[in-house]
Amino acid sequence: MSFYHEKVALVTGANRGLGKAIVAALLAAGIKKVYAAARCSSSIKHADTRVVPIDCDITSVEQLERVKTQVGDLNILINNAGRNAFGSILTSELDGIQQDMAVNYLGTLNAIRALYPVIQANEQGHIVNVISICALASMPGLGGYCASKAALFSATQAIRAELKKVNVRVRVQGVIAGPLDTDMNEGLEIEMATPEVAAQAIVAGIQLADDEIYIDPVALESGRIWQRNPKQLEADFALFE
């Protein structure tokens, strides 16, 4: 029997890119049900009856409370929804930086705060946050995005410690992702993993229950450098334009 055979997952940002690929990877792994969440669930079309589209704007606490009443069988929350406002952290419009923080950090935190009690009530499960190598060190031109992912990385650690302290059987995992070949990174001329390969690594990593899931070669190498010498990774990332 598959690890996922009796599991129910919710994936945010499931209508495209990595989120869509995660849904497909979960289905291939034998998942019982997937709540495919997006701001407009009508954008999600899937022939597999195990996929349940659901409206979910993670910046809306009120909508998340409604979602909570619809997903009482939830075991695995995969927080994938995110955005990236390219631009200088010193000179770009502050609105883009604020939106990155509102979605990537505060929005993800909203989803966790609303839904972790459901997972806890089902006795055990996983909270999985899609973070980034940019949480380990920042890059010029991505300062606002990097700051939001660094905040999420820190919050992931805090949530893990808090739930462990009260002996809650919920595994809190951070996905450390390098650049992926999605719409968000369109036009970048760098090595990028496909969403499908990244999604398969995430699905495998959830089962292994690692605290951090490094899902592609760039993330793996960045993680090795960071663990050995954080200032070296900062210097390396400073070269990216």
SSE layout:
Layout: E1 8-11, H1 17-28, E2 33-38, E3 51-55, H2 61-70, E4 76-79, H3 94-121, E5 125-130, H4 143-165, E6 170-176, H5 195-208, E7 212-214, H6 217-228, H7 230-237
Parallel strand pairs: 1-2, 1-4, 2-3, 4-5, 5-6, 6-7
Helix pairs in contact: 1-5, 2-3, 3-4, 6-7
Describe this structure in words.
The protein is globular, with a radius of gyration of 17 Å. It is 44% helix and 15% strand. α1 links the parallel β1 and β2. It has a 7-stranded parallel sheet with strand order 3-2-1-4-5-6-7, sandwiched between helices. α1 (17-28) crosses α5. By secondary structure, it is of the alpha/beta class.
Summarize the structure.
This protein has helices spanning 17-28, 61-70, 94-121, 143-165, 195-208, 217-228, 230-237; strands at 8-11, 33-38, 51-55, 76-79, 125-130, 170-176, 212-214. With 241 residues, it is α/β, with parallel strands linked by helices. Strands 3-2-1-4-5-6-7 form a 7-stranded parallel sheet, sandwiched between helices.
Characteristics of this structure?
241 residues; 7-stranded parallel β-sheet; 7 helices; 7 strands; alpha/beta
Record the strand order, biggest sheet: 3-2-1-4-5-6-7
Biggest sheet features: 7 strands, parallel
What's the total number of strands? 7
Decide which structural class fits the backbone.
alpha/beta
Strand composition percent: 5-15%
Number of helices: 7
Poorly predicted ranges: none
